[in-house]
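input
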Amino acid sequence: MLNKLTAAFGAAFLAITLVVPALPAAADSDVRKVAIHVDENDKFKMNLALNNAENVTKYYKSQGKEVQIRIVAYGPGLHMMRSDTSPVKARIEKMALELDNIAFAACGVTKGKMEKKAGKAVPIMTEAKMVPSGVVELIELQGQGWAYVRP
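output
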């Protein structure tokens, strides 16, 4: 009985020593994921969010690591991704062409409310992906381990 118990503890110890050293390396090689929240119709805040995305990209690239960034706009911040009212439209178009790690998510709930109020369709930039709800998008991303940034 004692020999079986000793053998079991020895096997468990060996398994732990083989697995534990691999954990930091595996975690270190993971892709970083960052969700950036924009909910204000403020050119300064929009540019700050885009600056954050560029700076995070540059940092992780300099470290030899990958990063995925999703900029999520809802409420008044949806103007950031409207093709007719965005004060940062040209910058988003340029970033979408140059940086394949950055995605833009536009809130469907906000778009619907803006359309109802305006009585016409609200055009969203082709660089942005429509999501049902910007708030839910942020909740889901955080639930999947994405870091959250609100400039």
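quick obs: The domain at 31-149 is CATH 3.40.1260.10 (Hypothetical Protein Ychn; Chain: A,).
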